[in-house]
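[User]
Protein folding is very new to me. Any chance you could explain this protein sequence and its C-alpha cells? I have pasted everything here:
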Amino acid sequence: MQAAMQVAKSRQAIENLIKKNVIEHKQIGDKKITHVYIPSLLMHYASKKNDANCISTSTKLDASDFRIELALANAECKRLSDLLAIYEKNLTRTESELLNERRELLKERERNIRLQHEVLTLTKEFKAILNNEDGLSNIIKKLFNNKKNYK
C-alpha cells in the first residue's frame, strides 16, 4: 500500500514538472503516452540538491568523449589480450616442463625397478652361496680356522 502511494506521488510530481515544462518529454502513440527524458529529470532534481554540475557534465557528452572512452576500452582490450598471450605462453611452457619432469620421473622409476631386481637377484645368490656347504661360508670358516691354528 505504501509503495503504491509512493509511486502515485512520484507520478504526480513528474506530471506537475511536465505541466510546468521543466523537464523534457514527448507523447508517443495514439494513446498519447508520455515518455520522460530521464537526464533532464535527473538534472532537475540535482539542481535542487546543488549537484547540477555533476549530473549535467555526465549527461552532456560529445563525440570526443566517446572517442576517448573507445580509445580507453581498446587500450584495455589490448592490455588484456597481451596478458592472455603471456599467460598462455607461460602455461604452455609450464605444461612442457611438467611433461619433461614426468618423463624423467618415469625413467628414474624404471631404473629403480631394474636396480631393485638386481639387488634381489644378488641377495638370493649370496644366500645360496652362504647356505651351500661348499660355498663361501665354508671357505671363510676354513680360513679363520687356519689362522687360529697358526697362532
User: Anything to note?
Assistant: The helical segments are 2-19, 38-48, 52-59, 63-131, 136-150.
